[in-house]
Amino acid sequence: MERVLWWARRDLRLADNRALNAALNQAEQVVPVFVLDPMLLERYEASTKRLAFLFGGLRALDRDLRARGSRLVIRRGRPADELAALVDETGAGAVFAEEDFSPYARERDERVAKRMSLRLEGSHLVHPPGSVLKSDGDPYVAFTWFARTWKSLPVPGPGDLLPSPERLPTLGDVASLSIPDQPGLPDQVPFPPGETEAQARLAAFARGEQAPIERYAERRDRMDLDGTSRLSPYLRFGMLSARQAIVAARERSGEGAAAWLDELIWREFYSHILYHFPKVLDRSFRAAYRDLAWEDDQSAFEAWCEGRTGYPVIDAAMRQLVQSGWMHNRARMAVAAFLTKDLLIDWRWGERFFMVHLIDGDPAANNGGWQWAAGTGTDAAPYFRIFNPVLQGETHDPQGAYVRRWVPELAQVPDQFVHSPWEMAAERQRELGCIIGEDYPRPIIEHSRARKRALERYKEAKHGSS
Prior knowledge:
- This protein is of the alpha/beta class.
- The protein is built from 20 helices and 5 strands.
- It starts with a strand and ends with a helix.
C-alpha cells in the first residue's frame, strides 16, 4: 500500500510499537493520528490531571515524530467518523492500531472495522486475553494459577523489542487540530509525560548497581520511602510498553525483581478479568455480596474524600491523591479497605472517585483493586480481612514521615502518637498546637466497632445468598 494510518490510542511511543512497525512494513507512507474521543474525554472518569498527562504525552509524541520527519495529526469526534474522513482525505488503504480490550474499546473497534480495514497489531499486554486459560478453556479467576500459567508461556527477550524508527516519511498537507491545552500537572509527585521520561525512569529503577528494583520486595509497602517504580502512568498510556517492563524485570534476579514481575502480571490479570467478565464494572464479581447492605453515609464519604476521617494514614493518602493525582499502592489498599469495611460504603463510590483523580486511572486495574479490597471480587481479600488503619500507618510509615508530609496539622506530633493523635493528653495537644476535634478531626468511627459491624454485615450477605 502507498499510504496507511497509524491510529495511536494507549501506545504513545515509537519504540517497541508493533502497530507502528506493522504499518511501516506495509506502506510507503504512514500517517500518525490520534482521535480525541468525546466518549472518553467528557465522561465523569476523565480527570483533569489525567487529561493533562495525556495531552502532555501527545505533545511529546508529536515532538518525537517531527524529529523523524513526520507529525501527529489530531482529530476530534467519533473515531469511526474521523478515521473514515481521514481515509478519504489521504487515500489510506488501512488503519493500523494496537489492540485494546475494555468493553468500550472493543465496541469502538468493531464500529471502525465495519467501515474500513482495521488491522490490530500487538496490545498493551504481553499475553492478551484468550492466551492464558485453564486446560478446559475457561479463564482463571485466581491470580496464583493465572500467574503460573502466564509465566509458562514464551515471553519477549531484549532482542524481541522493536527499535524506534529512525525516519518516517513526510506527511504532506493533512489538516490537524491543535493538541488541547490543559492545566499543568501538580508538582507534589511530578510525572513529566512522554516516552523519554518513561525510559529514563525504567532505567533508573531496574538497571544499574544500586537499582531500586533490588530492594523492591522489602520496600514496596513503605509509604514513606521511594521504593516503587512510579511507572504506572506511563504504562497506562503506553509511553512504555508492557514488553519493555517485563524484559527489564527478567533481566534482574532476586526477590525484588520477582516481586515487581508479579505486580506487572497483576496488571495483566485484571485486564483479562475485565475482558472475560465485563459486568464487573457494574457489579460485584462475587454474587454473594451483590446485595450487601451498605451504609452509604454521604457525610462519611465526603470526609473520606477530603482526608478528614481522623485516621492520619487514611487522610494522608486521600490528600496525596487529590493534590497529586497519584497514591502509593499500599495506601490505595488501606483507604479502599477503610471505605468499604470500616465505613461500609459501596466500593463503586470509591472506584469512581479514584477514576476522577488518578493520573494512572485504568478501568481494569482500578476495578480489580477496589473489588479486591472490598472482598467482592475475583481472588479478593476475604471478607474477614479488615485492615486496622492505625496499624497500617505504624507498619508502613513507622516514623510518620508520610503522614506529616500530607497532613501538616500533625507535623509536630511525636512518632508515638502520629498515627493515633487522639491518645495524646489534652495538655500535650495544647503544647503542640494540635487539639483533636479542632485542629485535626477525631476519628469518625471507632475501628473495633466498625470491624464488628462489617463482619456481621458480610456474614449476613454471604449466608443470605446461599
